[in-house]
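Case study.
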Amino acid sequence: MRRLLPTLLLIGLSAFAAPPAYPPVTADQPMHFPRDHGVHPDYRSEWWYITGWLRTERGDPLGFQVTFFRSRPALDETNPSRFAPKQLLFAHVALSDPATGHLQYEQRGARAGFGLATAAENDTDVRIDNWALRRDAAGLYHARLVTADFTLDLVLNPRQALLLQGENGYSRKGPLPDQASFYYSQPQLVVAGTVTRHGRPERVTGTAWLDHEWASAPLAEQAVGWDWVGLNLDDGGALMALQIRDKTGHRFWAGGSWRHADGSVQHLAPDAIGFQPLRRWTSPRTDAAYPVAMRLQAGGLTLDLAPLMDDQELDSRATTGAVYWEGAVTAQSAGKTVGRGYLELTGYAGRLDY
Amino acid sequence: MSTLRSLTLTLLAGEIGARPWRALIGVLAIAIGVAMGYAVQLINHAALTEFSRTAGSLMGNADLEIRGPRGGFDETLYPRLARLPEVAAASPVVEVEAWLPAQRQTLKLLGVDVFRAAQVTPGLVGRPAQPDGGRLNLLAPDALFLSPATLAALGLQAGSTLTVQLGLKTVRLRVAGALPALGEGLRLGVMDIGAAQWQLDRLGLLQRIDLRLAPGVDVDAFARTLHDILPAGVVAATPRDTLQGTSSLSRAYRVNLNVLALVALFTGAFLVFSTQALSVLRRRSQLALLRALGMTRRELLRLLLTEGATLGFFGALLGLGLGLMLAAAALRYAGGDLGGGYFDGVRPSLHPEPLATLLFLALGILAATLGSLLPAWEAAHARPAQALKAGDEEVALRRLHIPWSGLATIAAALLLTQAGPVGELPVFGYLAIALLLVGAIIAMPQLAQAVFGRLPLARRLPVQLAFAQLVGAPGRAAIGLAGILASFSLMASMVIMVASFRQSVDDWLGAILPAPLYLRATPGGEAGYFTDAAQQRIVATPGVNRAEFLRTGQLLLDARRPPVALLARQVDPRHPGRRLPLVGLPLVPGPEESAPIWVSEAMVDLYGFRSGRLVALPIAGRSVTFLVAGVWRDYARQYGAVVMQLNDYRRLTHDRRVSDAALWLTPGATPALVAQRLRRQLAGGEQVQYLLPGEIHAVSMSIFDRSFAITYLLEVVAVLVGVIGIAASFSAQALARTREFGVLRHLGVTRRQISAMLALEGGLLALLGVTAGLLLGWAIALILIHVVNPQSFHWSMDLMMPWRSLALLAIALVAAAALTALFSGRRAMSGSAVRAVKEDW
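After joint prediction, the assembly is written out as follows.
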C-alpha cells in the first residue's frame, strides 16, 4: 500500500455531472511488461516513486526522492475542451542533506495535455515541463529535475528482477477484495549521476528503490494514515513493510514482502509485521509528532530504523494536498547497519481527509 | 520706518476691509480654477492608482502579457510559447465579458489553469469555501470563484448560483469560493479554463497568455523576438505597456478638463487684475503718499504683489478644499472616469498627493500674482507728485496700452492653428485660443477708439455727452471691454461648439439608424449571439420584410493602443453611403481588387488608414489585405472602427454568428408587434434586447447632454467675469468722474440726464464688446471644431451657429452692462455736487 496521496486532493466530497467509471483492481489481471511500466489512465490514481541514498565523491550521504503522480479526477469527462482536466500530473522532488538539516523540495502540478505534461502508455515516460522520468529500451531509468535550489540528473540501473507485490502485483490494502492496488517494485537500483547545487555539479553514486502503483479504490474509511518502509539490504535482499493505522492509532491493515538475497520471496501476512515507535520528532511548522525512529518486526526480522536527519517533513498542500514525513533511514540489526531505505509516515499532521 | 510699515498695513487692511466683496470675488474665481484642476487631478490619480493596483493583482508576477483580439486566438500558441527556453512559466487565460440576466449587468469571467496561474498570477487562484474536499471545485465545470467586490455587489455567497447568458441560452454556475487576493475594487469571476472554454463557448480559443520569464531574460528584447512567432493580431505587452495604454485612454478627456480648469484660473487672474487695477486707482494718492514718505518703488511693488498673492493664497486654499469635495462627490456618483467610461469595473478611493496639492496651491497664488502684476508695476512707477493730484487716472491706464502687439498676437494665433497635434494632444490648438484671446484684449482699446471716433454728433444732451466720453477716454473703458470680450467670446465659442457637436451627433444618429427595429443578442458583454438557426428564424418571422445582420469584434493593431472595433455587416460596396455616414466620396473597388473596408476617422489619424490605401488586418490569426474604400464619421468609438462586408468576414473566419440585427418591416407590421412575436417564437427570445431607433436616439442625446454639463458651469463663470469686469470698470470711472458729475450738475444737467448718459455709455461699450466677442467666439469655435476636437477625439463635426441663443446672451449681457454702469454712476452722484467739485482744488 503506498502513497495514495493524490487521491487526497482529487476525491472530492461531491462528484460532478458525469463522473468517470474507474475499473476495479482484481486479482485475475496479470501484469505485462513493458506495457505496465507505462501509464494506466483509466484508474483513479497512479504513481512512480523513487527513493534512495546517494554518496558524493567526498563521501557525504544524501537522501533523494523523485515522484510522479497521476490522477483521474471525479469530474464530468464529456467536456470537449483540450484543457478539460481529465488527467492530472503531479511531481515532487526532494533532497535530504544532513548539512542543510531540513528537507529541500519542490513540487509541480499540471493537467495532461498540449505535450507539456504527458505520461506514455507503452513504457515509463512521464514529464511535466522540464521534469522527466523515462525508462529507455535497455531498461535504464533517466530522471532529470531542475529546481530553484538543486538539479538532479540521475541514471538508475536495475540489477535485479522486478518485485511484484502481493499476489503477482495484486496488493491488498484492506479486508475487502476491492481495497487493493496493482503494485510492483524495483529494488536495488544502482544510481549514478550528478547533483548540482549553487551551480556546482557533484558526481554521485548510490542505491535506490522504485515503486509503480495504480489503483481505483480510495483509502478505507476507518483508516487515518500509514507507515511504510522500503529497504535495500546490504546482502542484496529487499524488504517492504507497511501498516495502515485507524483512528485509535492501531493497525487497521498490514502487509509486506521480503525478497531474500537468493531471490526467494517471502510474503508477509498482516500479523507478521509490527511497527514500534522508538523516538518522536515534532515538526516546528505543523506540530505533528512523527515516530522518526521505529523498531520494525517483519517476518521474524527485527530492525531499528534511524533517520538520516529528523526534519524530512514534506508539505505538499500546494499540489497533492498532504503534509507527511518521507525520509532516508538506515536499518540496524544488533547495532550494525544492514540496509538503507526510506520511511514514509502519513496521517500525523491531522487526519488524512478525503 | 516702523511707522511706515504700520501705515502700510493699515492701508492694506483698510482697503480689503472697506471692500470685502471685491477681494472675495477674486478669491472665489481663483478658488474655482484651482478646485476644477485639483479635482480632475485627484480623480484621475485615484482611478489610475486603483487601476494599476488591480492590474497588478491581475498580472501577478507576469513579465509579459500575450494579448489578442477579444474573440481570441488559437490555443496552440500556448504550448509553443510555454516550451520556449526563455519562458519560466506560461499561464493561459480565457476571458469573457458576460451578461448576467438576473442582475442586469455584465461580469468579466476568466478561465485559468490553476496549476499555471499559481506560478504567474497567484491572485487568480480561487479559495474554495469548503476547506477540504472543496479543492476539486478548482477544476469543476460549474464552479465559479468571485472577487470580494463581486460577492458584495451581487449579494452572493458560496453555494449561490449565478446565471450567465451565452448565445441566447443561459448557463447556471455555482459560486464555490472567493478570490481573496484580489483588491477591493475589482469585479470579476474565475473558473477552470477547461470549464470556461466549454461552458462559455470558447473551445479552442484563448484571450491571453501571461508569461513569467526565466531569470536574466531581457523582457523587451524577448518581446521583440516574439513578434515573429505570434500570429497576426496577437501582441506581447509588458505590464508597463498595459498601464500606459490605460492611462492614455482617458488622456485627451483629462487634458480637455484641465484646459477648462486653466480657463477658470485665467478668469481668476483676470478678475484679480480688474479688482487690483481699480483698487490701485482708488488708492492712488495714498500710494503716492507712501512713496513720498520714503518707500522705494521696489517696496511698493512688493507690497502690491503681496496683496495679490494673499488673495491667491486664500483662493487656492479654498479651491483645494472645494476640489477635494468635488472629487469625492464625482467618484461617488460618476466613477473614476467622470462618466467618460474609460475605467470599467474599478472603484477607486481618493489619495491626495502632497506634490500635486502644493502644485495647485502654487498655481492659484501664481495666477493671482500675475493678475496684480500690471497694476502694481504701474502704481510703483507713477510719479508721486503728479499722482497726488486729481485727474491723473487716465494717464495711469494709458500706460497699459502696447500698440500693435495685439494684432501680432492674433496673427501668431492664426498661424498656430495650422500645426499638428503634439503627443496626440491639440497643444497648439489650445495655445492658439489663448493667444487669440490675449491678442484681442490687447487690441481692444485701439478698436474702441477707432469705432467710437466715428460716432456721429448727436442732438440730445445725454447721447452727446456719452459719445464724447467714449471717444475721449477709451482707456478707462479698457477693463470693462476686456471683461465683456473675454466672457462673451468664451461663452459664444462654447455655445457654438456644443451646438455644432450636438447637431452633428443628432444627424449622425439618424444616419446610422435607418431601420425601424433593432435586435441585440444581449444587453451587455460579448457572450450573446444569434446562431444561424436563430437568424433564419428572425428572417422568417411574419412582419419582417428584410433583416440585416451585424457581427461585432475587435482587432488589436498596436499593443499600446486600445483595440479597434470591427463591424462586419451588410454594406453595398457601390453605395456604402446608404448605411454609413461617409466623410468624402467613397471608392468603388473593382472585382479583382482586395476586399473593401470603410474606416472611421480615428483610423486615419491613429493608423494612417487613408482612403485608397491597401492595409493589412489580422483576421482569424492571418494577415489579410483590404482596400480602404471610404472614411465615415463615428462618434461612438473614439479608438477607431473598421466596417467590412459580412460576407467577407464569414469567408475569412467561417464564423456565422451575429450579435445584432436591423429589421425592416412589412407594411402594417409595427415594431412592437414584431418584437412580441420574436420574444415568443425565438428560442431564448426573452434574452434579446429589442430597440427602437427613437429610444436609442433619445438615450444617446441625453448621455451627450450629461457629458457636456461641465461646460455650462464654465459659461456661468464666464458671465460672472463679464459682469464683474463691467462693474470694476464703471466703479473706476465713477470714482474718477465724481468731479465731472459735479461740474455737470452745476451746469444744469439733471441727475436723470447723467443717468441716461451712463446707461448709454455702458450699453454702447457692451455692444462693442459683445460684437467683437461674437467674432472672436466664432473664431475660437472654429478652432475647437476643426483643430481641438479632431486632434483630441479624432472626429469631425459641422459648424452650426445657434443664433437664437447667441442673440439672447448678447442682449442679456448688454442690458446687464447698462444697468451696472447706471448703478455705479448713481453711487458716485449721491454726494453733494459742491463737495465733489471742491475736492482737491
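Observations recorded in class. Confidence is low (pLDDT under 50) at residues 338-344 of chain B. Chain B touches chain A through 31 residues (CB under 8 Å). We will return to this complex in the next lecture.
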